[in-house]
Amino acid sequence: MNKEPQGLENLFPYLEAHLDIHATDTVITQFKGGYSNLTFLIHTPEKDWVLRRPPLGLRIAKGHDMVREYRILEALQKAGYNKVPKPVLCCEDESVIGAPFFIMEKVDGLILRNKIPADLDLGPGFFHQLSINTLDGLLELHQLEMEQSGLAKMGKPEGYVERQVIGWSERYLHAKSHELTEMERTSRWLLENMPKIEFSGFIHNDYKYDNLVLESPGNPNIKAVLDWEMATVGDPLMDLGTSLAYWAEPDDPVILKLFNLTHFPGNFTRQEAIQYYASKSPLPSDNMLFYYAFGLFKVGVIAQQIFKRYSLGFAKDERFAGLIHVVEACGKKAMKSIETEKI
């Protein structure tokens, strides 16, 4: 058996007791590529499992609440949303690995990161259908039944927009490391331009291509949606705005094209994505500039938080050193969109 990754040294007695998984024929490896919570593959001869735990060191808000994420997966299944991995086990005892964690079944399929794999030929037809499937999946999520499933207990929709704008502005100031004028200007604009009417639904809050498990390179149907750490009850248009912030186009700054493959031929443009969503949703789309600007600001703050963790030595991944440039690009893109009124 390979040496367990850092922080999982005492895991096997727990796995043996609860899942009959034994150290002698099990290999645990960490999935690479994530920027937040840590995800590990537990490979056994019979079956593969996935373990999720908070990052090592500094903790930030409820996005690292593993018990909550586990409950969300349970409630989503109860609500009939079948695009989630099956939750298996939740451990709140921090003495096992130093933090709460949960285990879910592994869903096999294609996950698109920031580059198309060299051995795959994904053409415009693939990305066109993926755009449609992605938005259909988001629409399905936003229209779920929430009361009987228990999803309604996962958030407070009243005042959601205001809490988010104020909360993310405060998080930015708390994690601030550089003077980035456009980020602070965007924060002020958001505070001054919050919509007076808000809507309610269950939202993912980080819905983008690299959180989707697809059927295969020949079939972009969505088998599962991953990373529910920030999911809650709130305004679906805020969720769409965050997805649009990641929905890079060919003319966008290069650094903003590192997180999604939406800039390849065949993908919807952001405006096409808005029009498609609006065609299948009862929600108005006339104020999408606000939600898009908020999405960019939030992405910038997330990058700033991770950069701060890196600068304090809590995270060692060298990719994090460049995230300050993502923060700057998000602020500039948001202000440009506000000033030109173009998404």
UniProtKB/TrEMBL annotation:
Coiled-coil intervals, chain numbering? none
Q: Which InterPro entries match?
A: ACAD10-like (IPR052898), ACAD10_11_N (IPR041726), Aminoglycoside_PTrfase (IPR002575), Kinase-like_dom_sf (IPR011009)
Question: Known Pfam families for this protein?
Answer: APH
Give start and end of each Aminoglycoside phosphotransferase domain. 28-256
SUPFAM superfamilies, per the entry: Protein kinase-like (PK-like) (SSF56112)
**Gene Ontology MF: a single term:** transferase activity
- What is this protein called in UniProt? Aminoglycoside phosphotransferase
What species is given as this protein's source?
Answer: Mariniradius saccharolyticus AK6
